[in-house]
Amino acid sequence: MPSPEQERLSILAGLNALGDVSGAALDSLTELATHAFNVPVAFVSLLEVDRQRLVSRKGLDVTQTHIRDSICASAIGIAETLVIDDLRAHPRHASNPLVTGDAQLRFYAGTPLVARNGVAIGAFCIMDDAPRQFSEAQRRQLQTLANAAMNELELRALTGRRDPVSGLPDRHQFALDFDAHAAREPDTFVHAVLIDVFDATTATEAGQVLGMAPLETLIRRIGVRLRVALDGMAEVYHVGVARFAFVVELSSSKAVEDLVAELQDRLTRPMMAAQVPMSPSFHAGICGVTLGQHTADEAIRRMLVGLNAAINSRSPFRWYSETRDARTRRGYRLATDAREALQEKQFHLVYQPRFRASDLEPVAAEVLIRWNHPQLGAVSPAEFIPVFERTAVMQGITRWVIDQALDQCVAWRAAGITLTLSINYSARDMGEEDAALRLIRAIEQKGLSCADIEVEITESQWLRVDSPAGQQLRQMAAAGLRIAVDDFGSGYSNFGYLTELPISTLKLDKTVIDRLCLDPRAALKVEAIIGLAQRLGYAAVAEGVESAEQVARLQALGCDEIQGFALARPMTAEAFSERFRAASAQA
User: Fold this and answer.
1) In this prediction, what percent of the chain has a pLDDT beyond 70?
2) Are the CB atoms for 206 and 199 separated by under 8 Å?
């Protein structure tokens, strides 16, 4: 059985008394008390483990005191109003700071604030600077004010910390209860589970088709299913639009996984919404936390790490992983450091040559960005580019790359080096309405021709003729820019766009080239792609070529251009210039 103190802490958390309580309604009650009893001081106090908080006060500047200085701690120990006619004559409270300090208070009357289960959590108090008597009628009046204050606190808990859709306690209440649990049972190891029952796409589509009311009905029913399934085991919290969390004490991780599997079975059973049967999706993130060592925010953060891993891997659940967490934190740091990195010139460009397959003469160069981070060292583009693409950072990086690359192209033209410069564009870059116009203007302002530049885009699902990206590509091609599809054959292949978009070049992905000389079927695939590209009027470029044997095989297959370590690694502009001049001298 929990002790009275433990019950009080639990109730305080449930009433949101430990959070930011708006004092408007309570302030009106304490002010009324000063007038009704003709006293200078009135306040509502709530008693925690080691402190008393004055959540509403009139006539006092203090907002909290140590529990040892709380007269109200004595008040909640009795069932009726505590009255001390003269505090200076009281054996326990004569030395109280409110009595001996500047306030010089002498009289105290306090009525316990009693919750619905009979546990006192604080007191409604009045104080005077002179001794006085307190009648039975005044005791009743103070009790009435205490009841009104308690009703207000409970009303706040009911309306302020409940989700309006499900009626379940919300994320703020989760944090309060978590902290209260930690105060009651410090160092206890528990498991926290976060469940997502509607992915964004499904929720959006359902809302468009059914409207919000049926969707909210679904979420409410899911909350009921969860509450029933966990009855007597854990409190359920509605912490997101379609996300629910709970904390449970089970003996092993296997027991937690079995529970999550049971919840998946219950929650994914079809239910009706506006006469349409729907099956919720199910993903869960699980973590182990130690009460008192991990905060509620940390528990939610760890659950989110596991949940996002489950969603990304399309798995029912995933445990929190420190490795994955560190990777996510590192990615976030890279995104936040990017703007400063641009200002401090931590980025630089290198150029990887592309060679004509027939005579291995350099004919183009792919622009590649590199980052020397002051703390993390050299960071691979394979790591930071995907991070940038998920944020607004990518546009700024791309614009910097274009400006630097075009300047280098101008310098090469002045030095007599003529070749095509290939610049990578991301899906986010192509999603901008003025992507084509901005690039064309930048090229013209540098005194270059659009025919000097090639735009590389990665083959993916966004590459459609009717997409905004497709419109930008057509505008670029109309101005004379060459369009190259990178990573062709790496997994996603929609041949429809090959004849509908103004493509100039297909770049065979390294994974297609790797087994060229080892697997006859891989060789057939390469030969087929080269043939397809050339019959469509495109140049076929093999990238990621790492051996002389692969170079010879690609030449035999009639590939147009070759790029890879077998012929040249990415190099600085200066090294590229020397390489180009050397090739020209030998010719």
Assistant:
1) 89
2) no
